[in-house]
Design brief:
three-stranded antiparallel β-sheet; Aspartate Aminotransferase, domain 2; 14 strands; about 400 residues; 2 domains; Aspartate Aminotransferase, domain 1; seven-stranded mixed β-sheet; alpha/beta; binds glutamic acid
């Protein structure tokens, strides 16, 4: 079969495929500890599930408008005003099948062949893949050499070319857990605006920030920032709704209208029942959000401490999201239980096969030598996983 060039070159999502592999092992009865996918282990809060049941019983089972129901777009606009200080009309919101689809459709709207998407690395695995599918060129800016893994204005300046079109910012960051301050974002936005870039700001982890830090929305940094930023968010992480697939983009009207036209051909409107549930999530009681955040904060402390106690593993304290992203370069170049480990991929393979510990290698995030641990899982699993990592390190033969 002669597949298209895009199909031939597309790699599977490292986060999803590793998770599927670990789950298949578990289904065969193997005792795997899974730190792979970024997915809250909590169930969706009851009030949200009940809203879906009511929607189903009331017959909300038909197509909705392609860009989402007006009711949900209005609820999102209200949320953005209240939480983020952003003023958008409901017509400036696109509701998609997850934040992932919103990102992809917006890239389709903004990228022409060869246009560059600037990406501070480490970054989430799907951004470069999506830009490529759109004919764009992902340009990663390596921030792994900086003390806090953050992009600086000088680094951004030096990556600019005539084809630079988009800058992707993701605070809190998947996989590093880094949170940018308002001043840091302002300095980056200044450079981006000076060079006429669009900013794609993925804020899907905004409610998962610890240590009393505050989330700053890029588009809130002034009228020009608002005009040149697309704000992305979704319900998966905040409300433990990964399977419901509701995400959104907020942007100037012309862009959202174009995105809605594309979405009308690609998938039509998102799931009608999930949209009803999303209205309840955004407008109903919010206690569960704080409860989940507290649990994640406790687990973060536990995993960071545990990782740093293992020889050869160094882990920064992430300030947001639910990922620990330890530097494991000292573990490379050695043999463990007869297996040679040269890079993050072979390390993650060896961990899975020897001690049944499933983690995502740093390489697909643009950070070779690192591993990503999603700590959105039970305390006992975290403890067990840390023990297995220590056991593996103890198997070193050279
Ligand atoms: N964003 C989550 C992760 O990084 C979910 C999986 C995905 O869509 O990549 O694990």
């Amino acid at each position: 079969m002669r597949l298209s060039e895009v199909a031939q070159s597309a790699e599977p999502s490292a986060t999803l495929s590793l998770n599927a592999r670990a789950k298949a092992m578990a289904a065969r009865g193997e005792d795997v500890v899974m730190f792979t996918v970024g997915e809250p282990d909590f169930d969706t809060p009851e009030n949200i599930k009940q809203a879906a049941v009511r929607a189903l019983q009331a017959g909300h089972t038909k197509y909705t408008p392609a860009a989402g129901t007006m009711e949900l777009r209005r609820a999102i606009a209200d949320k953005l005003e209240k939480d983020n200080g952003l003023h958008y009309e409901p017509e400036q919101i696109l509701v998609s099948n997850g934040t992932k689809q919103a990102l992809y459709i917006v890239m389709l709207c903004l990228l022409n062949e060869g246009d560059e998407l600037l990406l501070p690395a480490p970054c989430w695995v799907s951004y470069p893949a999506q830009a490529e599918v759109c004919g764009g060129r992902p340009v990663t800016i390596d921030a792994t050499g900086t003390a806090d893994l953050k992009l600086t204005p000088a680094m951004l300046e030096s990556a600019l070319t005539e084809r630079s079109k988009l800058l992707l910012l993701n605070s809190p960051c998947n996989p590093s857990g880094v949170v940018y301050t308002g001043d840091e974002l302002r300095a980056l936005v200044e450079v981006a605006l000076e060079h006429d870039l669009w900013i794609l700001s993925d804020e899907v982890y905004e409610k998962l920030i610890y240590d009393g830090l505050e989330h700053v929305s890029v588009a809130s940094l002034g009228p020009q920032a608002l005009e040149h930023t697309v704000t992305f968010n979704g319900l998966s992480k905040t409300y433990a709704m990964t399977g419901w697939r509701i995400g959104y983009a907020a942007a100037p009207r012309e862009l959202i209208e174009a995105a809605g036209r594309l979405q009308s051909h690609l998938s039509s409107g998102p799931n009608s029942i999930a949209q009803k549930a999303a209205v309840e999530a955004l407008t109903g009681e919010q206690d569960s959000v704080g409860e989940m955040r507290e649990a994640f904060a406790r687990r973060r402390d536990m995993i960071v401490q545990g990782l740093n106690a293992i020889e050869g593993v160094r882990c920064r304290r992430p300030q947001g999201a639910f990922y620990a992203f330890p530097d494991c370069r000292e573990l490379l170049g050695h043999t463990y239980a007869g297996r040679r480990v040269e890079d993050s991929l072979s390390l993650s393979e060896a961990l899975l096969e020897t001690v049944k510990l499933a983690v995502v290698p740093g390489a697909p995030f643009g950070a070779e030598g690192y591993l990503r641990f999603s700590y959105a899982l039970a305390d006992s699993d975290i403890e067990n996983g840390l023990k297995r990592l220590a056991e593996f390190v103890g198997m070193r033969e050279d």
